What we know:
This protein is an alpha/beta fold. It has 20 helices and 29 strands. A six-stranded mixed β-sheet has the order 13-18-17-16-14-15, sandwiched between helices. The longest helix is centred in the middle third of the chain and has 17 residues, at 334-350. It binds beta-D-glucopyranose.
Amino acid sequence: MKAANIFSACLFLLPLASCTQVTDSGRDAVIEQKIEALLSKMTLEEKIGQMNQISSYGNIEDMSGLIKKGEIGSVLNEVDPVRVNALQRVAVEESRLGIPLLMARDVIHGFKTIFPIPLGQAASFDPEVAKDAARIAAIEASSVGIRWTFAPMIDVSRDPRWGRIAESCGEDTYLSSVMGAAMVRGFQGDSLNNPTSIAACAKHFVGYGAAEGGRDYNSTFISERSLRNVYLPPFEAAAKAGAATFMTSFNDNDGVPSTGNKFILKDILRDEWGFDGLVVTDWNSAREMIAHGFAADDKEAAALAVNAGVDMEMVSYTFFKCLPEQVKAGKVKEEVVDEAVRNILRVKFRLGLFDNPYVDEKSPSVMYDESHLAAAKRAAEESAILLKNEGEVLPLKEGVRTVAIVGPMADAPHDQLGTWIFDGEKSHTQTPLSAIKAMYGDRVQVIDEPGLAYSRDKSMAGISKAVSAAQRADVVIAFVGEEAILSGEAHCLADLNLQGAQSELIAALARTGKPLVTVIMAGRQLTIGKEAEASDAVLYSFHPGTMGGPAIADLLFGKAVPSGKTPVTFLQTVGQVPLYYAHNNSGRPASSHFKPLDQVPLEASQTSEGSSSSYMDAGVQPLYPFGYGLSYTTFKYGKPQLSSKKLSSGDVLTVTFTLENTGKYEGTEVAQLYVQDKVASVTRPVKELKRFARVALKPGEKKTVTFELPVSELAFWNIDRVKTVEPGEFALWVAPDSQAGEEVSFQVVD
Ligand code: BGC
């Protein structure tokens, strides 16, 4: 490091403590000097040891032996603070250079206090929800010594067959960018150096959500244009938000596994975005390049990964075993190893691990703090989406005296937590059944008859009892959906209908003629057309976490008002996959005049049914579009006023409109701004979300809402492979969902 590259960021007016010397690439100069000093003392084996991550296992002596030799840089999956400190002590006090370990864990949507799954958080369209959830997860996880989480997962996901859609922020690039960046800020806090901050990891880099056929780990075929326009922006936003680490994805894109993909790891991540944190492989994904047929053996896999820009290997040990020899053989340059080690040490220094390596084993427990539970409840409330409310059956009226609570998800403390809850405990879950009894038991009599034991239960034996409960009640509330294990990693489905005999249960309940409220808890958007049709009201709650019960209870009884919106398109049938709102137009866009298949005349002429891009049996209309969700109240949108109808690429477009609460309840509307580039050098999506805002309004209240949109945000990767705004006509909508709103237009003139 040359002294000339360092300048002082101290302003003479600032107190001394805020002085940080930064290098001309914006890094903390003191940290960079420490990295260089340490690196100069390291043997090749010690360097490669830093690049090795193991998963904790029972035998602490054995692990300690490896750590002492400098063979391990990071340990994942150790959550006992006493063992965390014991391992750390070996690293700091007994290894030759005393480099602390980085302790990691998948803390995805909560540590002990479980928040709604990320797909649910995305339905809130509230970055504060995502940030708070991540902050609280960080506070709880760091209290046992975890300083690195493998989240946020920001894979744009347009296929609900893929089980990992649950972990994502859904189908939209912009929504995923905003929510992902908020999660990064929440996990990392104001400074990584704070003991309650944990390093975030933007994953899975990149394209994993586009797995062919929705089958986990499968190949993807994403063009560079789609990568840049659709899949990369959430990662760029995470990098800008300061994400300390990135994880490579399992998939090969167009033949190149991400773990060996220099184009994404070096050219884009490092050179274009200036990322200087650490890149870790996914679990065993270096070695899996052998199964891909991309590497012949461990030696080649290690060299390919490191040369492509991976810094640390998760669990497969190919680096540690093979890199010394690969360096000696000239297959990997020692400078490449040095760079990887710098990236790892930088994160460790930034986390303050060298100064403060241990966790306080004696500090009072922060788990399930009242404030954490309150935040989890708020998140679950904001995440629930009201899809239907015929005859205003919700909120339940004062006259309702008896409610039948049925269905396998009414009291499923494990399943409502959702996927990826290594540390969540079902003993702390508050289910809808327990919450309704506890919170509203003095107002209504509850008849509790599940009908089915769990979501896949096919036995019809209990259904008649549920029907009899319904007959004795004023209103039936059916809790259906899917168990936690039906979504998440490697849990993909080819059929998205309700499992087991749940459809039969809903049909039988509907036949009683009693008002039927169906609450669905699931890890993905299921195909619920029939059940929605049979129900008077439908409330969709992606697995809502520890406090799902009280949140849903308050929503049903009107103490809270639904405000969530669909972060994914809901399909009529799985055969419509992929169906997402931001699609490009074909030369023959589908008309909305869908004719059921059995109305197609016999021996009709070839073109009688029109020639457009659609399905004869299902059409292309979703069951519910992206961005959709009702409230107990109603909102009226005024016509948007634009600051100008002719803008230059350097301008900021200001869009102003009034939003009025025209109903009886206080409520919050998620107002959305969509834009379409009408004609461009490559075809562009029919609509793209560019802004959204949650607007709270009392009955009769009217507010002026303003969105500011820099014209530069209309840029896309064009025919010349350049990210630019092309002049021309644009359409704009301000709307309650992706299919509504009145079109207004503007022009970009240069
Ligand atoms: C998953 C990652 C996760 C890692 C560590 C992998 O199987 O794909 O998302 O972070 O395991 O548990």
